[in-house]
Amino acid sequence: MAKLYFRYGVMGSSKTANALMVRYNYQERGQEALLVKPSIDQRDGARFVASRAGLSHPCIYFSDLEKMPPEELCCYACIIVDEAQFLTREEVRYLTLLVDERNIPVICYGLRADFKGDLFPGSQELLAWADIIEEVKTICWCGKKATCNARFDKNGVVLKEGEQVVLGANDQYIGLCRRHWKEGNLGPGHQKCETVQ
User: Fold this and answer.
1) Per-residue pLDDT tens over the stretch 134-159
2) Cα(41)–Cα(54) distance, integer angstroms
3) Catalytic residue among 83, 125, 134, 183
4) Which of 140, 139, 117, 120 lies closest to 128 in space, CA to CA?
5) Cβ-contact 175, 47 below 8 angstroms
6) How is the chain split into domains, by residue range?
């Protein structure tokens, strides 16, 4: 039986690299996996996914996936969704139909919460509907598990207010443990940090 997976992690935890490796593993075994992302994500260019580690591959937009006829969908052994936090409630429900009615496994990768600690709408739906929820782990500068996404400005000040989505600003985010996120402490090598509320 196919399952809906939600694999979440903070910024810099190699979620996209994991997604690309899973796609490659399917290909290496002679099976096709379809790579998908929401169209809001234009950082790597149109219909393209790239990781910080240098891995990349073409993809389709989620809207393209929804338009695909059932006979074309059946060609895929798996559907992999990157940046799944940007999905809508309806899009997550559509993924459950692919799993339940088409028997196609769907693996979603994304952030759980934003830089303020609030759940993204897509992540909230995936937490509610996914069959399997797994954390893609990384560490804070102190060595503890990073669980929070910190956004900081050019002066190294950790921000707690602002727009939920700012695309293409990867160099303004870092994964921190909860304690250092609360303190606004980006660690050694950064200017003295304060938290802006």
Assistant:
1) 999 999 999 999 999 999 988 888 88
2) 17
3) 83
4) 120
5) no
6) 4-135, 148-191
Q: Is 90 one of the catalytic residues?
A: no
Q: Is the domain defined by 4-135 classed in CATH 3.40.50.300?
A: yes
Residue 195 makes CB contacts below 8 A (sequence gap 6+) with 157, 158, 160, 182, 183, 184
Residue at 35: amino acid letter: L
Residue 3 exposure: Cα atoms within 13 Å on the Cβ side: 8
Which pLDDT band holds residue 84 (cuts at 50, 70, 90)?
very high
Residues comprising the chain, all counted: 197
Q: Give the global pTM.
A: 0.89
> What are 125's two structure tokens?
């739906």
